[in-house]
Structures are given as C-alpha cells and as structure tokens.
Amino acid sequence: MLASQRKQQILQILTEEKQVMSGELSQRFNVSEDSIRRDLRELAAEGKLQRVHGGALPVSAAIAPIETRKSVQIASKQAVARAAAALIQPGQVVIVDGGTTTAAMIGFLPADLSCTVVTHSPGIAVALVDHPRIEVILLGGRVFKHSVVAVGAETLAGMARINADLFFMGVTGVHPRAGFTTGDYEEAGIKRALTARAAETVVMASREKLNAASAFAIGELSLASTLIVDGEPDAALRQTVGAERRGDRPRSAVAPPGRRA
C-alpha cells in the first residue's frame, strides 16, 4: 500500500472512530510506528488532524480567523445561542467570552433584560450598546486579533475583581479525550481564568466543534456546569459526559438547545 493510500485510510478511520492510536494503526497496516508517526505528522501539517500523545484526534474547523468563522455553521450557532440566552436571569452578573457563537447570543437577549455583562471582547461590548438596562464592563489588555479579544496581564488583573453568576465560554473543540480546547495558548489561559471567576460555566459548542480538538487545552469536560450543543451528541461524547456526571463533579451535562441541562 502506498503511503498516500494509507493516509487516506487513516483519515477515514479517524472520521469513524473519533481518534486513532499509533500502535493500533501500526498493527492494522503492518508498518512500523515510525511510519505511522510520519503519516500523522504530514497529515497534521496539512491541517487534517490534531496530533496528541500516542495518536491523533479530528482537527477543529473553528480555528479559522473570526471573519471566516462568521459564515460557518450559522444555523447551528443560532440554535446554541438561543438556548444560552435563555439561561440569563435578571440581576445576574455574567461573563461573555469572545467568538461568533457567543456574539450570536446577544441577539437573543430580551430588550428589557436588566443584568451586568463582563466581557473581554470589544465586539460583544459594542453589540450590547442598544440594551439600555444591561451594564457593560469591558476588560482591557492586548488585543488578540485572531479572535478580537483582550488577553494578557491587564485582562487577568481586571477579571480578578469579578465574581459572576455565569460564564458563557466559547471553544474550538469538545472531545471526550482532549476535553475543551482552543487554538491559542494565551487565549486558553484566559478562558481557564474566567471559569474561576464564575459560579457556573456554560460552554457553547456548535456542531463543527464536537469530537474535534485544537492544540491548546482549556480543561476537562467537567470544567463546565452546562454544555450546550446543537442536537444530541454521539454516543462517545454522551458516555464521557455521563461518566463525569457520576464522578466527583456531578454538574457536567449535555443540553440540547432549548432545554437547560
């Protein structure tokens, strides 16, 4: 079998099984693990998978620049955004992450909603200008242009003074093995820090982010109090979340749009 044929079969296996292990592929194709690792390196360089220790996971399509992401899975993001907006109660203090899915949530907030929104996204802050009863706190810092959010020491210092009810977090990947991931190291750190400033974290994941992974880990699936996805996740993701619900932090859940987990 040619290496090109083997790589195509690896991608097919990855699509079906949601992860591949180098040792198992070596046995399946009767080649050395070095050959498999070379295949995975080349496929990763082409942006077709995300390498992890011992193998690879499906790569997230959500790591493109924000302008590109605005046209990806629009209906799915709208469904997730509508469900997320319904969780906000009058008088709450909520943190809203940057990103196209969280931005879509703003359009579903009632015009008369009274609450406080803390965000490190200039775009989110501007979108809330037309909500007269929503107090907006914009965290400062260096602008990470890929996602148009503030990051860095000033952002961390600002969030340290916040105690919020909810944090609505965007991610680029949700995977049973990799957990929640994103495409930038510093942005992953900001997201982790924001989860510590809220009583509950709501993760919003449109369809293309499920069973996919990016390079930088935010945390395990148990980091979320509620995971809102577009429709029912597949069996592997349901099983992982179900196991975490029975573990030490029984707050993790998967909620189809329109229903609170």
TrEMBL record:
An example Pfam family from this entry, by short name, is DeoRC
According to the record, the residues making up region (Disordered) are: 238-261
InterPro entries assigned to the protein according to its UniProt record, in alphabetical order = Carb_Metab_HTH_regulators (IPR050313), DeoR-like_C (IPR014036), DeoR_HTH (IPR001034), NagB/RpiA_transferase-like (IPR037171), WH-like_DNA-bd_sf (IPR036388), WH_DNA-bd_sf (IPR036390)
Q: Where is the HTH deoR-type domain?
A: 3-58
Cleavable signal peptide: none
- Which SMART domains does UniProt cross-reference here? DeoRC, HTH_DEOR
Which PANTHER family does the entry mention? GLYCEROL-3-PHOSPHATE REGULON REPRESSOR, HTH-TYPE TRANSCRIPTIONAL REGULATOR SRLR-RELATED
**Name the UniProt record assigns to this protein:** Putative DeoR-type transcriptional regulator
- Species name: Klebsiella pneumoniae
